[in-house]
Amino acid sequence: MMNVALKKSTVFQNIPCTLVTGFLGAGKTTVINQLLASKPVDERWALLINEFGRIGIDGSLLASSQDDTVNKNSIAIREVSGGCICCTSQLPLQIAISRLLSDHHPQRLIIEPTGLAHPRELIHQLSAPHWQTALQMQAVIAVLSGAQWQQDKYRTHDGFQAHVKDADVLVINRYTHLSDSDKQTLQAWVTKLNAQVHIIWASAVQAVPNNDSLSTTDIITLNNQLATPSHIIAQQRTININYPQKRSVGLRPPNTVLSPTSRSNSMQANDDNPVSPDIELPYRYHEKQQDMLLAGWRLPAHYVLLADELQEWLLKLPSWQRIKGVVHTSDGWLQINFTPDSLTTSTVASQLDSRLEVILQAGDESDQMDLDDASPVTSAIDWEVRDRELMALVI
């Protein structure tokens, strides 16, 4: 099957392709949404999203945010979930790109890797000979949060710096609280890591604190970069990353018991694959990736959770680093987007199901990055207890 897919992809020549990278919670999705909104009506674009977890949240939110029917029909969105595409074998990336090219014939491809990605390996993969005729790699765009950079635990960590080192363009947002001296220090820090990078200060955030939106001028500048060849791509660098350890389980609905046979079938069907759209709900998985613990839940749309109690429960999870979700609650359908620097909720349209994903800091490695003031999770979490706590919030 793989040979067939790759053969199809070679029919296409020089499809412009752009990477949009950035650390967890930097604001990549906002930048991509604004790029999609500025897409010419008569062009077909494709978006490949790499979710670090396996639930898949960003793709459905991006799809539902495209209100213009004409634009929506000309943007193909595909997700690669269940691990970083730069950390695993190249097969998921090759299959996803090949299918996007052969099924949708896009005139432009945008790739959003997970915030825990190491862009250098992804750049190396996309520089492989079998993509050099199909894809025309354009400027690599990275997004950086000034609020994160201000904390020493971020700016001194290799994973945070990696996005700056391997970028052609750097969009800096959330910097309004920085003094002029701090901004000069930030610019000097960026220049030391990557003297060739073009910096865009997201000027719209000057008027609205914690707003990631770009001004019209910024968007025009970014659009120009979509047609600018990348000097980073040509370097073809590589890096080694550990493979993940995964575990998936069926989740018991309230007041029901999952039979041993059903539980066994559910685990077997999902240990080696991302969550299928047809998986029996409710469902939960958990796994370890690098020095992070991941967990995700998918619940039927008719499960309504207590809104305030749900947010309180999420914020009490140990050493959480990122919480994302779109959930049916007592306050309606809510999009949840929590980082240590920002807690955001907003109403969204009804979805096919509720989805939650959390990333926690593990405590197994002595040299790991401690992103939170709280101690890392050093002992195993009893996920069945967490399941019962979550189910108790269903009305």
TrEMBL record:
Where is the region Disordered?
259-278
Q: Where is the CobW/HypB/UreG nucleotide-binding domain?
A: 16-199
Q: Which domain of life is it from?
A: Bacteria
Alphabetized CDD domains for the sequence: CobW-like
The record's Gene3D superfamilies line, in alphabetical order, gives: P-loop containing nucleotide triphosphate hydrolases
- Residue ranges under compositional bias (Polar residues)? 259-273
Protein name listed in UniProt: Metal chaperone
